[in-house]
Sequence to fold (140 residues):
Amino acid sequence: MSTRSDTNVSSQLSILILRIGAGGLLLTHGIPKLLRVLDGNFGFADPIGLGPELSLILVIFAEVFCAAFVIIGLWTRPALIALIINMVVITFIAHADDPFSSKELPLFFLVAWITLFLSGPGKYSLDQRLFNKEKDTISQ
Fold:
């Protein structure tokens, strides 16, 4: 028989696994972009008219720095806002005319980021330790 405490621990571990898993997987997309910029290559798409260089910098900010913040659970919700915007632009603007297979991965990330935004960073996060935001964790 499952107790309320068991359910809470399972929920909190689920949030932690989602944060680390999705954040870590996104780093595999962001780090190569960061390395390109460090090599001086700023060539990139310009899906919303900000210019290719600024678009690339914003994507790197989201896919590297915000993903890292999500992984460690620090400033999680603000980082998730940037990640949600990033995935919306990728899915519905940059790949708007592409087949569903090109949208599937960014849609998965979008679902993960929205889920984490709604759940909060969880008990096992730096947000919880540093700011004691009990209201941001599932309490059942």
About this structure: Residues 12 and 122 are 6 Å apart (CA to CA). Helices lie at 4-38, 52-72, 76-94, 100-119, 126-131. DSSP finds five helices and no strands in the chain.
